[in-house]
């Protein structure tokens, strides 16, 4: 039995284990039918032209963990932003860990998705938001919808500011020979509200892991959302991340993606505009080597006038690694005065490293400022010579150039402690110690 057949046959058993509203049963049933019809994406699909899942799907993944694993905070402290106080929603092998989590219902809701899906008091919110902007056509999003249960539920009411950042952490312990998890996150940020969220998936050993994650983010009028994705997993971990963002009038949503680890990482990031004078920011840094593969697929759909979107993706590839950037800006006829900027800059450190870039603009309005561009090159030999001539060793000079290359994205991190953490990770990836504090 292959993985597709295992998932389809497991669906009925899954629904028997959980308590869901009848409306959700219909949503799940429709979703699993869509996945059954379409199956896993292949390279024949245009959006997956440069990314194959075939090697990963050969693993005999466990769909439901057989045992609950227990880990101590001391074992995983280094993965948290422990320098400051944060809310925490933590999962171990796909199962909520109450002793590692720090949730709240005081003024804001930071809690478990399973509770929101089953408790009557959340029914109106779930009916309004759950699965409303997630793609009904994408087979992997449909698969996640069919099995949606565990994940983070975050609801920031009108005119509230989350008093501290929220960390969503998914740990895989390796208790299964190979494990597939399907976390589902729902983030609702009310009018004039503000939240900072950090998401991380982390394996604690080298057993294969496949994570098929879906996050829906709703930003109401004048809401501010800063979302940070830290992807620095083991080389046996595979992540397919689908994030859907709905923005209303004058909202500001930023999604920053830092891809450093993992075997295969696919980031599908979709922004939909439903109001005027809003801003979308999509930033990414990718630094990978060996045979790692990172694929960024972005869509910003401008449907209203006077809106802005900014995409800035930096990639550094060594060894036999492969990068993909497929970014689309879509401007509808009524979206006049749109300002859309898209850029993908890449450095290849090896003759065997590969980057596939496909920046796209589809514009149906006539009064817009839109630009896109892509560069692929190597480190500036003149700059390298200049620094070495002034006593900077070649390794450090190379690292400084690469750090400067990605600094524009780093500067957009609004949590100082997270900025320091990302800087340290980059220094480790580049194999140097930075001689200055950032």
TrEMBL record:
PANTHER family: PROTEIN ABCI7, CHLOROPLASTIC (PTHR43575:SF1). It comes from Flavobacterium sp. WC2409. Residues 177-405 form the SUF system FeS cluster assembly SufBD core domain. SUPFAM superfamilies: Stabilizer of iron transporter SufD. GO terms for biological process: iron-sulfur cluster assembly. This is Fe-S cluster assembly protein SufD. The gene is sufD. Residues 2-168 form the SUF system FeS cluster assembly SufBD N-terminal domain. Belongs to the iron-sulfur cluster assembly SufBD family.
């Amino acid at each position: 039995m292959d993985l597709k057949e295992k998932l389809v046959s497991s669906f009925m058993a899954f629904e028997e284990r959980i308590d869901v509203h009848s409306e959700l049963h219909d949503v799940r049933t429709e979703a699993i039918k869509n996945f059954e019809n379409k199956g896993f994406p292949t390279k024949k699909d245009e959006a997956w032209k440069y990314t194959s899942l075939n090697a990963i799907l050969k693993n005999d993944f466990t769909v439901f963990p057989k045992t609950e694993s227990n880990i101590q905070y001391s074992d995983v402290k280094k993965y948290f932003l422990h320098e400051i106080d944060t809310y925490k929603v933590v999962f171990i092998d796909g199962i909520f860990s109450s002793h590692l989590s720090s949730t709240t219902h005081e003024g804001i809701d930071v809690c478990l998705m399973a509770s929101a899906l089953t408790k009557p008091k959340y029914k109106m919110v779930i009916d309004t938001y759950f699965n409303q902007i997630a793609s009904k056509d994408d087979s992997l999003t449909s698969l996640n919808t069919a099995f949606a249960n565990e994940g983070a539920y975050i609801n920031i009411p009108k005119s509230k500011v989350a008093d501290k950042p929220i960390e969503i952490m998914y740990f895989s312990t390796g208790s299964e020979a190979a494990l597939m998890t399907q976390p589902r996150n729902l983030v609702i940020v009310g009018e004039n509200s503000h939240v900072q969220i950090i998401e991380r998936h982390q394996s604690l050993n080298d057993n294969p892991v496949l994570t098929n994650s879906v996050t829906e983010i709703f930003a109401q009028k004048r809401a501010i959302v800063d979302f940070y994705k830290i992807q620095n997993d083991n080389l046996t971990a595979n992540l397919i991340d689908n994030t859907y963002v709905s923005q209303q009038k004058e909202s500001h949503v930023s999604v920053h993606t830092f891809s450093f680890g993992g075997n295969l990482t696919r980031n599908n990031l979709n922004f939909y505009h439903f109001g005027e004078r809003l801003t979308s920011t999509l930033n990414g840094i990718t630094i990978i080597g060996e045979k790692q593969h990172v694929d960024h697929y972005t869509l910003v759909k401008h449907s209203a006038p006077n809106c802005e979107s900014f995409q800035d993706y930096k990639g550094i590839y060594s060894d036999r690694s492969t990068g993909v950037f497929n970014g689309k800006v879509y401007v509808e006829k009524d979206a006049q005065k749109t300002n859309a900027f898209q850029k993908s800059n890449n450095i290849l450190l090896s003759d065997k490293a590969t980057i596939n870039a496909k920046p796209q603009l589809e514009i149906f309005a006539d009064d817009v400022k839109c630009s896109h561009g892509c560069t692929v090159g190597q480190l500036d030999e003149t700059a390298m010579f200049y620094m070495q001539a002034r006593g900077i060793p070649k390794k450090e000079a190379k690292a400084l150039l690469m750090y400067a290359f990605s600094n524009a994205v780093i500067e957009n991190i609004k949590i100082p402690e997270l900025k320091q953490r990302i800087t340290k990770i980059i220094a480790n990836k580049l194999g140097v110690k930075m001689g200055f504090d950032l």
